[in-house]
Amino acid sequence: MTEIRVAALVGSLRDGSYTRPACRHALDEAATYEAVETDLVDLRDVSLPVYDAADDEAGDAAELRARLRDADSIILGSPVYHGSYASALKNALDYCGFDEFEDTTVGLLCVAGGSFPTTTLDHLRAVSRALDAWVVPHQVAIPRAHRCFENGEIVDEDVRDRVEVLGRRMVEYASIEPDPRTIESTQNVGANDR
């Protein structure tokens, strides 16, 4: 088996984040496979000013893009903010594009303080499709996250199982044969010169 690289992009900046340990747990599960390397891309450790298309090399943008480009599959993890995903994750994704995501397997994970966090996953799926990524059908929504974690560990068995399945899917589908480009990606301004 050739080496597979699985990354998780953590879209939470909060110290007590539940997104971070959930992404870490998914990566730990992915690492149980032979020849798998993982990379937790924690946006707390990446310097990215608010995206300005006139300066897309600002801060650690080049390093962020390189780490994601090297991944065969990427988990996008975010807390739920106002029914969507975190601005830190949006900003990071704005620094990226087709070079990082086209034909890349993507998994989605979101964490909410309340219930019904699925619109966040819908929004992340739409962004991923616009970048011509291949989004796995299995996704993880963790409602009422404060009940599911203790000391940075997942204590809810159902949540743990879903997160572990996501980690496995990132390996199993890391090299899936890509489909023809989506209509969303062909209409994306970034795709016009391709």
From TrEMBL:
Signal peptide: none annotated. InterPro entries: Flavoprotein-like_sf (IPR029039), FMN_Rdtase-like_dom (IPR005025), NAD(P)H-dep_reductase (IPR050712). Its cofactor is [4Fe-4S] cluster. GO terms for molecular function: FMN binding; oxidoreductase activity. Residues 5-146 form the NADPH-dependent FMN reductase-like domain. GO terms for cellular component: cytosol. Belongs to the SsuE family. Isf subfamily. This is NAD(P)H-dependent oxidoreductase. It comes from Natronomonas salsuginis.
